[in-house]
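Session log. Operator J.P. requested a structure for one protein chain; no other inputs attached. Running the standard single-chain path with C-alpha cell output.
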Amino acid sequence: MRKTLAIAGSALLLAGTGTVAATARGNSANPAADPHLVQMDEISVPIIDGDRLDGTFKVNVVLSMADAAAAERASTDMPRLRSASLATALEFSRLYASPMRAVDTEMFSESLTEALQAEDAGISRALIVQVAARPS
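Structure written below.
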C-alpha cells in the first residue's frame, strides 16, 4: 500500500499540468529510461448500493507509458481510454466502493491497469493520484 502511494505521489509531482510530462532530470544519461506520463481528466461515478445512490467515487489517474510514442498515441486515443476507465470505475464502485470505508486503491489500480492495457499495450501502469468515496 505504501509503495502504491509513493508511486502515485511521484506521478503527481511529475505530471504537472500538461498532457505529457517528462521528468525534471533533463541531463539524464539515458532518456529512454525517463518515465512518460499522461494525465487523465478526473473520473467521477456514482456509488450505488442496491436501489439507492450511496455516494460518489472520484479518482484522478496518471498513465505510465512505455515510451514517448505510446504517450503520444494515448493522448490522441484519450476518449477510448477514458471510456474503458469509466466502465472499470463504475464496476469497481458498484462492487467495492463505499463512502463508509477506505478505498482499496491497489485493487482498483490493478483492475484499471488490466482494462487499459487491453485497449493500448503501450500502457505500463495506471497510477492512482487521488481517490475519494464520499456520501451523497
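Operator note: The two ends are 27 Å apart (CA to CA).
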